[in-house]
Write a structure and sequence with these properties.
globular; mainly alpha; disordered C terminus; 264 residues
């Protein structure tokens, strides 16, 4: 069992490596995509600088906490889109028969599919996230926690996308639904938790677990609590498990379109 897991990890690392090498063939485009993503993210911080010049506290968050929120949101986005890009294209792959390419390969179908490509600009999000951490205040503790929560946020975003995209096995075209929910997860992750009330807040701690991807990690980094840390890890493992369960339940209903594209 451990050998199979080890081999699968090696396969996924190699898949990501080859996808990255393909993108690096045009180095100018590769570097410019990263730089422009960093600049794009930085431009949004200006609005918060203006707001906090007027008010010291927004939604229960100080300016440093909002910086941390933005950093974690960028890190989660970067990790999910760089390492698991096709988790966000999965419903299209199901509907167009592109999963055929992975069914005949001797490795985990889901992992092979979602790690087969990378989003280069997502590296800009990851670099931007660490720049934010430098501004927030870099220490060994903050670096380790920030990195951990960036990875867990990436896993949550990718897992949620897999869950909703896998509905395509039963309902066909669900791209609009999955893309909308992915956008909500991405956009609302940068706003202080305190501005959300009632059913919206419940939603962010259940179906769309932003609370565990961004809000609770911010609380832990500003006021460390081992119980909350264990809760975040448990929720991440839960959503990863649900993603695999939903995908493989749906895969039983998958009908090949005989679209056998060669993969290099």
């Amino acid at each position: 069992m451990l050998t199979e897991v080890k081999n699968q990890i090696k396969v996924n690392i190699l898949s990501t490596k080859y996808a990255l090498e393909r993108e690096m063939l045009n180095k100018v485009t590769f570097v410019s995509n990263i730089i422009f993503m960093i600049l794009n993210n930085a431009s949004f911080i200006v609005q918060w600088v203006i707001l906090y010049a007027i008010k010291d506290n927004i939604g229960g968050y100080s300016f440093k906490q909002v910086l941390l929120l933005w950093g974690l949101a960028a890190m989660g986005y970067g990790v999910s889109r760089f390492f698991f890009k096709n988790a966000f294209n999965l419903s299209d792959m199901i509907n167009t028969g592109k999963l055929d390419n992975y069914l005949v390969q001797p490795k985990n179908v889901l992992l092979a599919a979602i790690t087969s490509d990378v989003e280069v600009s997502a590296l800009g999000d990851i670099l931007y996230a660490y720049i934010i951490l430098l501004i927030y205040g870099l220490s060994l503790k903050s670096f380790l926690l920030f990195t951990l929560f960036g990875i867990t946020a990436g896993f949550i975003l990718a897992s949620v996308s897999v869950i909703f995209s896998s509905l395509a096995f039963w309902f066909g075209r669900v791209e609009v639904i999955s893309n909308t929910l992915n956008s909500i997860m991405t956009n609302f992750a940068t706003y202080p938790e305190g501005i959300f009330k009632g059913i919206i807040k419940i939603l962010f701690y259940t179906i769309l677990p932003l609370g565990f991807a961004s809000y609770l990690p911010v609380q832990i980094m500003t006021n460390f609590n081992i119980y909350n840390l264990l809760v975040v890890i448990f929720i991440v493992l839960l959503f990863i498990g649900l993603a695999f369960l939903t995908f493989y339940k749906g895969l039983r209903k998958y009908s090949s379109t005989n679209l056998m594209n060669a993969r290099v």
